[in-house]
Amino acid sequence: MAPRKNFRNQAKKEVKPAAVVNKNGVKAEATVAASGGGGGFSGTKIFTWFMVLALLGVWSSVAVVWFDLVDYDNVIERAKEFRFNFSEVLQGKLSAYDADGDGDFDVEDAKVLLGLTKDGGEITNENADSLEEIFGILAEEGSDWFYGFFTFLYDVITPPVEKDPEIPESQTAEEEGDAGLKERPVSVVLREAKEESAVKEPDAVPPPDDDAAVSLPPISDDFIPDDSRDEATHPYEDENDAIDTKGELVEKAQPQQTVEESKQYNDQPGSLETKEAEAESVPEPEADVEPEVESVPELEAEFVPQLKENAEDQPKDKLKEKAKKKKPKLLNKFEKTIKTEIDAAEKLRKKGKVEEAVRAFETLVLQYPQSPRCRYGKALAEDGLAEKMLSNDMLQKAIATYKEASELPNATPDLIKATLKKRAERQQFLGRMRGALATLEKLVQIFPEDVALKNDLGVAHLLIGDNKSAKRVYEEVLAVAPSDGFAKVHYGFILKSENKIAESIPFLRDGLESGDPGTDDGRFYFHLGDALQRMGDDSAYKWYERGHQRGHFASVWQRSLYNVDGLKAQPWWTPKDTGYMDLVKTLERNWRIIRDEALSVMDKTTSLFVPEEENLREKGEWGQFTLWQQGKKAGESCRSVPKTCGLLERYPEATGCKRGQIKFSVMQPGTHVWPHTGPTNCRLRMHLGLVIPKTGCKIRCTNDTRAWEEGKVLIFDDSFEHEVWQDADSYRLIFIVDVWHPELTQYQRQTLSPI
C-alpha cells in the first residue's frame, strides 16, 4: 500500500517565492511576510510610535499654553463668525428647487429631479436645467466654504500683528485704517469683500442734490414755448406748443423780460453753462499776451473769510443732516418683485445703450402699465436718447413721460420728487420757464417742508421776472431756515434790485460765506462788490478778488461773465489795435452829419430818448436812443436818422454784433454813473464825441481816466470796470457803436448767443 502523503507538510514545502516580472522586464521574487520577519511592523513598534506621537502632542500643548502662543478667546470668536454648517449655507439657495413640497431641498427632491422615484420617470429638460443650476451652486459655495475653512485655520495658527509702541497715537486716519485692516482676520475680510461685491447696482440714478438749484440756461434769441398740453390750467402757461423738429438739442432761454430786475439776474453775471459752452469755441490764445492794465492796489487777504469747503468747517447740524441722507426709495411693493427686469433695462441705460434701453423700458411699460418706476426709467432713457440725437422733439417726449410717471398710483414719494425735479430741469433747459414754474409749484405743494424745493421755486420766479413772488418764497425759507445760504444770496440779490443797497449786503455776504451749494456763483460776488462800492466801502475789491480766485472773473477789474476765453484783454484800444480802421474813419469823417441827425431827434416835442433803466446812475439824467440791439435793426428809429444808419449798413462788425448796441447817449449835468462792467468780453465799445462841454466830462476805465473830444473816437473794453462823471454846465452827447472783439472767428460771431 502506498505510503500516505502528508499533504500539510507537502503544501508547506511547496510554497515557493513567485517570480514577478517588473516593468523593466527583470524578474524579482515576491516574499511572503512571515511572523517575526524583517519586512513588517510588529505590535511593539506600533505602540512605540503611538507613544512618541502622544508625547509630542503633550509637549506641544504645554509649549502653546506656557508661551501663550494662541489666543483662545480670539479663536473662539473667529469660529463663531465662520459658518461651519455647510447645509445651512446651501439651504437658502437650494430651497427654490424643492420638488416634494416639504419646504427644503433634500434627498427626496434630488430623486425626483434624477427620475429615481418609485414611479420611475425620466429626466426632463426642465429637470436637467435645475440640476445644472444646483451643481453650479454646489461648486461655487463648496469652493467658497473650503477656502473659508482653510483661511480660518491659517488665521488660527498665524500670530497676530502687534502695534509698534514707538508709533505715536496721533497717526493719520489713513495709517490707522491700514493698521486696522492688517489686524483683522483674513476670513472676515474675505467674507466682507464678497458681500460687498454682491451688492447690486442702484435702482436708478440718484436724483440731483436737493440742496442745489436747477441750473440756469444761457441767453438765446430762440425760444421754445411750453407745451400747453402739460399745464394748460396754469395761469403762466403759454398757448403756443410749437416744438423743434430739426433734431437739434439746444438750450433755449426765456423771452426778453420786461422787468429790469429779471434782466439783471439773467444777463449781467451769466451762467456757468454759458461759459462752458463758449469755451468750446475759443480760439487759441496768443503767446505771451498780458492785459495792459495797471495793477490793482494790494488787497488785505485776511479781510474776506475763507469759504467752507470741507467737512471740518461745516457746522455739526449740517454734517448730521448730510449723514441722514439716504438712498431714495424708488420701488413700490410690487416693483420689488420685478426688480430684476428693471435692473436689466437700467443697466442698458447706464452703459450708454440708450436705444436698447428705451425699447426695454417700453416693453416693461406695456407689460406693467401701472408701474411708476418702469415709466420713470423710460423717461430717463428717452432723456439720454434726446441728448445723443440732439433732438428737442425727443426731449419733449421725455418731459411728457416724466409727468406720466409722477401721476401713476402707488408711486413712492422719492420717485415723485425725483421725477418732477428732473422734469422741471429739462423744461428750463428748453427755455420753458413758465412750465418749469408750474412743475416746481406742484412739487412744493406735495412736499411743503422741503426747503430745497422752495429755493428752486424762487429761482423759477426770478427767471420769469416775478421778483415779488420770489421774494415771498425766500422770506418763507429764511423764516424756517435762517442760516440757509442759498436763500440768503438770492434774497440779497432781490433787495439790491429794489435799490435797497445797504440791506442787501449782509444777506449776500453771509450767503457767500456759508459755502452752501448754489452760492458759489459769480452773480453774487458781482452784486455784493457792486453794493459795497455804492456804499463807499473799499472792501468791494476784496470780494472781487475772491471772485477772481474762485474762477468767476478774469481779473479784479474785468468782471464780465459771458466770456470767451483767450481773447486779448486790455481796457483801452487804438483803432489800429482793433483792425476796424475803415469804420473809425467813416465815423470821424461824418461826425457832423451824425450829430445833426441826433440833435433833430432831441429837438422833437416828443423825445425819442428813453431813460437808462439798468440802475447804473447814482444821480442825474441819462437818456439813450437805440438804432441796433443784439444785431437787429430798429427800423422805426433808423427812419428818424436815415443818414446815420446808411453809414453803418456796410459794417457788419457793428450792425451784426449780437452782443452789443448802436445808440445815441445824452447825459445831463450833475450825472454820475456808478462803477460797473459790461456783461461780456466779446465786444469793444466805440464812443464818438458829438457835443462835448469843454470841462467836467470824463470817463474812467480801470485806473485810467480820459475825456471825449468832438469828432474823435474813444475805444475801450467795457468788460473792464468803468465810471462816468458829467459835472459840466450843459449836456454831453455821444454816439456809441459796439463791435465784435477782433479775435472772434466768423463762426463764433454767428453762433454766440445774443446779449
From TrEMBL:
Leader sequence segment: none
This protein's GO CC annotations: endoplasmic reticulum; membrane
Membrane topology: Single-pass membrane protein; Single-pass type II membrane protein
Region (Disordered) residue spans: 163-325
Residues annotated as domain Aspartyl/asparaginy/proline hydroxylase: 588-742
Presence of the UniProt keyword Membrane in the record: yes
Gene3D superfamilies for this protein: B-lactam Antibiotic, Isopenicillin N Synthase, Chain, Tetratricopeptide repeat domain
Biased composition (Basic and acidic residues): 179-203, 226-251, 309-320
Mapped TPR repeat ranges: 451-484
PANTHER family with a match to the protein in the record: ASPARTYL/ASPARAGINYL BETA-HYDROXYLASE, ASPARTYL_ASPARAGINYL BETA-HYDROXYLASE
Family indicated by similarity: Belongs to the aspartyl/asparaginyl beta-hydroxylase family.
Protein name per its UniProtKB record: Aspartate beta-hydroxylase
Organism of derivation: Hucho hucho (huchen)
